[in-house]
Specification:
5 helices; Arc Repressor Mutant, subunit A; elongated; homodimer; DNA-binding; alpha+beta
Chain lengths: 93, 93
DNA sequence: TAGATATTTAGCTATTTAGCTAAATATATA
DNA sequence: TATATATTTAGCTAAATAGCTAAATATCTA
């Protein structure tokens, strides 16, 4: 179940901040790491979790790997949240 | 930051299933526990985490404690998700 | 008040997670 | 090819999390 990965990925504040950064512009792994008081390997692992959840994409350009948002998963997330606004119904019909 | 509690609470499949159940109707702690292959104390802890995140309310009626959805937090969650649909902007303006 | 039912709290253990350092991999360039 | 830069992978440790059982708390009713 892919929504499980989505929520797991979103449960960490560092990872949500990474998404906030990528909302503005695509960034390399190094540029992302600069925004945090944390080692690059730690950020790399967070990026990997976000990638597994398909919340972000990666693309290598020479020495650099650029990360960007994947907005489609947010649409699925939106559908999930909407179920709880419209009372009644299973959300699966 | 309350959104942090929200996402932590939503990161567990059991807790999301509890929300699905409460979407249909208010239920007692015992009724909720019946839907899971898990002890009542374990369910009780999950309910407590959902309550801390203000995703649900509880109300005692005699021997029973009824749980119900609090839809207002889902609205905040919705705002958060929407930021990532409309590219550009910080979402804080 | 005593006993039954509903639920939570306390305390324990196994698993998962997030951080670190050191080493490995990939690319660019002299 | 050798060296430098960018990033990830591997392996470790401390802290957090989810499950359990046993005990405590709250309410109802005989």
């Amino acid at each position: 179940m892919t929504l499980n990965y989505t929520f797991k990925a979103l449960s960490d504040p560092t990872r949500r901040k990474i998404l906030d950064l990528l909302k503005e512009e695509d960034l390399t792994a190094g540029e992302i790491a600069e925004h945090f008081n944390m080692t690059k390997p730690s950020i790399s692992r967070h990026l990997n979790l976000l990638k597994q959840a398909e919340l972000i994409w990666d693309e290598r350009k020479g020495q650099f790997i650029y990360y960007s948002l994947n907005t489609t998963v947010f649409q699925d997330l939106m559908k999930w949240v909407l179920q709880f606004q419209n009372q009644g119904g299973t959300g699966n019909e």
